[in-house]
Design goal:
By secondary structure, this protein is of the alpha/beta class. It has one domain: Rossmann fold (3-Layer(aba) Sandwich).
Amino acid sequence: MVHEDESSRSNGDPSEQSKTALLIIDMINPFTFPGADELFPAAHEAAMSICRFKQRAHQAGIPVLYINDNFGTWRHDFHTLVTHCLNEPCRGRAIAELLAPAEEDYFVLKPKHSAFYATPLELLLHSLGIRRLILTGVTGDQCILYTAADAYMRDYGLVIPGDCTASLSAQVNEQALEHMRRYFRADTSGSDHAIPPTPARTLTQCE
């Protein structure tokens, strides 16, 4: 089995960036599930980092993929979920406003924790020529973790910026990041390391 080492993840290598995709996991979300009260403050803080990171991804030509639970609502598609979170008085509206998808972004609905399980994600990544994934979103110890495990078994390089993930507690999130560093060879340093920052004036919509 072939694995990427740290040198192959250099954020300064344009050829590596062309093989990279940014995944935003479960952030378009009404946050009405059990535990959402505890999770939301950390999720909103992560959303601000993801917003800035997404802008840099667009500027670098890195495709952005929204990976979202369908929350057991099989009659709704992703656009219906986005519209609900943007227009209804739900807790997740502030995050949806920060991270509303652009026309060029992709989306995949998932029925379970992993972005790969029973979804077309692998086919989409193959069609885009992707070999390196940047995972962001919620929660670090569940959907991020299971997605990372499935990605690792498929030989994708992994970057999981610590400031772009959230769990029910900071301790639980750090434990998940440590697990992914140790067992999946993930780079969990901050988002500024994965894609170079852009000037602050281009990031005001994320504040």
